[in-house]
Amino acid sequence: MLAVELDGDAVRAKSGSMVAYDGRMTFKKLTGGGEGLRGMVTRRLTGEQLSVMEVKGHGTCWFADRATEINLVRLTGDRLHVESGNLLVTEAGLRTGTTFTGLRGASQGGGLFTTTVEGHGQAAIMSEGPAVALRVSDRHPLTVDPGAYVAHQGNVRQSFQSGVTFRTFLGEGGGEAFQIRFEGEGLVYVQPSERTTFAGEV
Amino acid sequence: MSGCPAAQGPVVHDPSSLPADDNVNAYTFCVELAGTQWFLQKGKMIAYYGTVEFDGVGHGRLDRLVRTSFHSPLHASDWVVAGGHGKMLLADRAFDVNSYDLDDGNLTIRSGNLLAFQPSLSLKQSIVPGFLTLIGTGKFVAASNGPVVFMEPPIRVDPQALVGWADCPSPCHHYDHGYLTGVLGGLRALTGVGGASGEEHQFEFVGAGTVLLQSTETLMPERAVGEVARGAGVPGGGPCGPEGGPGAGSRPSGQLGGLQRRFGL
């Protein structure tokens, strides 16, 4: 559960994620993720739906969603990539948008597009079990299972690698047929659980 | 916006700060590979640094491992060998994971709970259906629904809470005999009228050893451990007796699982 103290300022939260509040709060539905007309059209086209509300007022507001773990990420001008379904709360100073992810998104069942968060402030992302933040550097590239990937931030290049061999088709594959490789400088968040993906079956 | 007490942000791990063969948090385990190998269940790796290869068990150069580590190869197709250099994170559906050391010992564990083990241990199919036995010296990782509690026998445990046992000579069923044979209790158990307490049946352990319990009665999903060779006197080996010959669907022992099972169907 995430407690947010508001003093006249506003946060954006996933619609319906408020569980309790004290003080005075107003909840306003933001159409199209609060990204204006252009964002609305992009989201509709890409299918990366983001249903947000703006919470404004004085007091404390508590957010939670299906008992998932909540991880706070601080952004200082860099960019966070996260699936729209995993984004819970963003501060008012953060902008959200949509980008193309390519095969990585398709392999984890999240679609070809993902949500980006940019600016200065904190964002709360959800994961099944507490997420582990792993640092990626040039000396230490990281490889992640698509089903366990939650989010990444910083200047990170991702590439998709496949370990599919003829053995996979014999049913004796290594069980880790699809992986995402991260290189560059940044952080990757993984959850201690794997979503059911196509890749999980081979 | 100020968050929960832990608002200072997450702990960031890199290869040097990750522990070697220890838990990162209650749900994630880190394995250090330095040219060594680990066995893990398919699909339990969540991330790794370095160069790690995953190979299905039971072909080519890994065939020897099946002989030395899987004495019953019937379930070997559910396991992969991770080898190489680097650090690898393991996790299982956000369940608690813990590592245990065996020192020339034996431990029997529910098949769905075992996550990974070192090749110095050998994995055998227990004669108790649905359980696997690890024998030897080495480390293994097991998942449980909630933290694991270690108990000393003599003890009676709820079937759903049992994770496994080590060095125990006598796991057996125990029925609350007095209650079930009593007039009132018998009527209740037969008809369901009045309800049963739900605790008439337990597992009983006596002797020296350790019993592992999980702190919930929600079972982890079972994993198929493979069929046992059919034959009279083999528990779970199908009907035995005069008419119970080898079943029609049985395979000669020594083969890996059927094609359907390999594809997870």
Structural commentary:
The complex is a heterodimer of chains A (202) and B (265). With 202 residues, chain A is mainly beta. Chain A contains three helices and eleven strands. Chain A has one domain: Double-stranded beta-helix. In chain A, 10% of the residues lie in helices and 56% in strands. The radius of gyration of chain A is 18 Å and the shape is globular. The model of chain A is unreliable at 166-171 and 198-202 (pLDDT under 50). Chain B is mostly beta strands and 265 residues long. Chain B has helices at residues 63-69, 177-181, 183-191, 259-262; strands at 12-13, 22-25, 28-41, 45-56, 79-90, 96-110, 114-117, 121-125, 131-144, 148-151, 155-157, 162-166, 170-175, 201-206, 210-214. In chain B, strands 2, 3, 4, 5, 6, 7, 8, 9, 10, 12 and 15 form an eleven-stranded antiparallel β-sheet that branches. A three-stranded antiparallel β-sheet of chain B has the order 11-14-13, with no helix packed on it. In chain B, a hairpin with a 2-residue loop joins strand 2 (22-25) and strand 3 (28-41). The longest helix of chain B is centred in the C-terminal third of the chain and has 9 residues, at 183-191. Chain B starts with 11 loop residues before the first strand and ends with a helix. The interface between A and B is large, with 54 and 48 residues.
Characteristic key phrases:
heterodimer, A: 202 residues, mainly beta, Double-stranded beta-helix, B: 265 residues, eleven-stranded antiparallel β-sheet, three-stranded antiparallel β-sheet, 4 helices, globular, disordered N terminus, Trp_RNA-bd_attenuator-like_dom (chain B), AIM24_sf (chain B), AIM24 (chain B), Ser or Arg-related nuclear matrix protein (chain B), Trp_RNA-bd_attenuator-like_dom (chain A)
